[in-house]
Amino acid sequence: MNDILNYEGKICVVTGAASGMGKSTVALLNGLGARVYALDINEPSLPVEKYVRINLGDKASIDAALAELPEKIDRVFSCAGIAGTIYGGRTFSELDVLTINYIGTRYLVDGLIPRLPEDGSVAVIASTGGMKWQLRQNLHLEFAKTDGFEAGQQWYKDHRDELEATFNGLNFAYMMSKEALIVWMKHRAFALSGEHIRLNSISPAATDTPMAEDFSKNANGLRGSHVSNVGAASTPDDQAKALLFLNSDLASYVSGQDLQVDYAFTVKGLHGLQ
User: Angle, nearest 10°, between helix axes 172-193 and 104-112?
Assistant: First the structure.
C-alpha cells in the first residue's frame, strides 16, 4: 500500500512539543518515521531528532532557535500557545498573550518558510475562540500586514482599544490572538501559493489538555463550554490527527483553510441551536 500521508524521513518542526496537542503530534510523527525537531520552553519526554528551547514571547529566543534548526525543513507544526493572561500558575499581560500566540508564532513561521521546498507545508493551531474573526477582519488584516516582531507588538498597542470596542465576551487577549492568527494564515497562504507552499490552521473546540483548567480560569469558570452534543471534549490526539492530515500529501491542494475540529460545535452559534 502506498504511504498516502508521506511522512517517512520528512524533517518536521513541532512547537509546543512537550505537552498537549504538540506532544501528540510528535508521537504520531514518530510512528510515521518522521525526523522531529521539537521546540518548547520545556524539554519533551518523547524521543526526537533534536530539542531546541524556545520562548515565543522573546524575539532573541526565536532567533536563537532558528539558528539551531536545519536549513531544509519539510513540514512545520505550530502547536505552542497559552490560554490567556492566567496560565501555568503565572499571570501574563495581554501583550504577552498576543505575542506568544500570534506575533512570535508568525515571526517563527516566517523565519522557517524560506527553508521549505516547493511542496512544503505549515499547519498552525488557532481556536474556535477565534471563530468571529470576520467581525474584525479589516483590523486584523492591517495587523497581518505589519512587518516583523516589533511592528506587530506596536500595532497591537496602538489598536488594542479599537479592537476591544468591538468585542463582547471573555478572555479578550486569547480570542484576539486566535482571530489574528486565522486572518494572517489566510492572507499569508495566498502569497505562498505562488511558491507552492501550503499554510492552514485548525481551530479546536474544548480539548482535554493541561491547559483546560487555565481556560476555565480565564473564562470565569466556563470550562468545557465549547462542546457540541457529542458530550465530551476532544483529545489531544484528535487535534494532532487533523494537523497531520493538513500537512500530509492527502491535503496537497488545501491551503488557506481553517479546519474547525469541533464536532460541529461552531454550528451551534451559527444557527442558534441549543
Answer: 20
| Ranges 42-56, 80-94, 118-132, 215-229: which has the least confidence | 215-229
96 contacts 57 by C-beta, under 8 angstroms: yes
Name the region of 224 (left: φ>0; alpha: ψ -120 to 50; beta: rest): left
Per-residue pLDDT band for 223 (boundaries 50, 70, 90) equals low
Instruction: Report domain 11-264's class.
Output: alpha beta
Give per-residue pLDDT as tens, 142-158: 999 999 999 999 999 99
| Rg from Cα positions in the chain | 17
Q: How far apart are CA 149 and CA 266, in angstroms?
A: 31
> Of 48, 45, 57, nearest to 20 (Cα)?
45
Q: Which residue has the cell 524521513?
A: 9
Quote helix, strand, coil % in the chain, to nearest 5: 45, 15, 40
Checking DSSP bridges between strand 90-91 and strand 86-87, what pairing results, if any? antiparallel
Which of 104-123 are b and which e, b meaning 16 or more Cβ less than 10 Å from the residue's Cβ? bbbbbbeebbebbeeebbbb
